[in-house]
């Protein structure tokens, strides 16, 4: 049933009838891309002890196997913007869905380590592309009164994907010698659901209008909000394209990011992106069962504790959603980095003094809770706010690239650090990184809550 939502537009202030059921359907199907994002990144956590034994890998090869997906994701993010403009949002997402399905099975049943790496990196390409296109598609399809909620729903779906990956690993643990192959292959099931679901949604009306397919765009908008809504939204989208054409000559290039007056802002964004991945959460998400096993827990118990990590991650993401507009971005980043520093020190101490597994579990869950309520979701909000309009696209691309590369190095280096430095020193290093980030947030990042982009730009430029 279509419900009445008061929608505001530049042409009319009359209420329009928004088909919320269809908007929710669109968002739910697009959210499967987020589920696959989280699922694909974390599913490897339960497979590490099995494929490393099968391929007879050392610590360097293990780190490469776990981290290489992030290099694929960086490539996917770089390609996705241009491909989504040429192929369309829906068609590219269908390609991502098929790539998720093929690479899940391909990784699981790889006969050699090089083919395992190749499929894993191709899976990363799908991750990087979906991470960029899914929220963009949801934002372009959702009416303004529902847009924030729908995009937040996509972010939540990533956390659900992480939880489902842990659950899948636990359920498939005792399926025999090929258990790790079935763990990877399980990714193909939601991938095919995503592919089929995309047949039931339309292409983005903004992309259609950009390709001069105005009648198709108006039909989509009409289904979302009726004829009045369709007329008003189509007029605004056409006007925005006309304005973009007029301003094309004034657009910035990548080199403009390094201009003296803009670089301080870009630098802050890159640092925020880098430290969001360097503080230690990747070690916990990607190697949780191994950490719990090293703390003395039985294998079944270690995999069950990983599910608890996913549940905590989900619960505390809701905490972030509820507090970010009240507490503010800077405060959450500052408190989060400080608490993560203390928790990383506690983990270092737990492994140094070989405390019982219950203590390790408590400190790991506390770390995930703090990260999920602060740095994890706040990072993306901060990045979306600190870059001025004229450089946002290029600056976000640079920050995202830095994020994926950092994710690769932190994930790939963990087994090496664990072997050669030991877990106490490894988590001690994470504590130092958290403290450095705390100092940086305190000194360089202003509060962006409630400020216009122009105010933020002036303040950041002055701080630079």
Automatic annotation (TrEMBL):
One annotated Gene Ontology cellular component of this protein: plasma membrane
Keywords, ordered alphabetically: Cell membrane, Membrane, Oxidoreductase, Sugar transport, Transmembrane, Transmembrane helix, Transport
Residue ranges constituting the Major facilitator superfamily (MFS) profile domain according to the UniProt record: 26-449
SUPFAM superfamilies documented for this protein: MFS general substrate transporter (SSF103473)
Primary residence: membrane
Membrane topology, record value: Multi-pass membrane protein
Subcellular location as annotated: Cell membrane
Top-rank lineage group of the source organism: Bacteria
Segments traversing the membrane: 22-44, 64-80, 92-111, 117-139, 151-172, 184-202, 262-282, 302-321, 333-353, 359-383, 395-414, 420-441
Primary enzyme class: oxidoreductase
GO terms, molecular function: 2-alkenal reductase [NAD(P)H] activity; transmembrane transporter activity
A Pfam short name: Sugar_tr
Known EC number: 1.3.1.74
Family the UniProt entry places it in: Belongs to the major facilitator superfamily. Sugar transporter (TC 2.A.1.1) family.
PANTHER family in the cross-refs: D-XYLOSE-PROTON SYMPORTER-LIKE 2
NCBIfam families: SP
Protein name: Sugar transporter
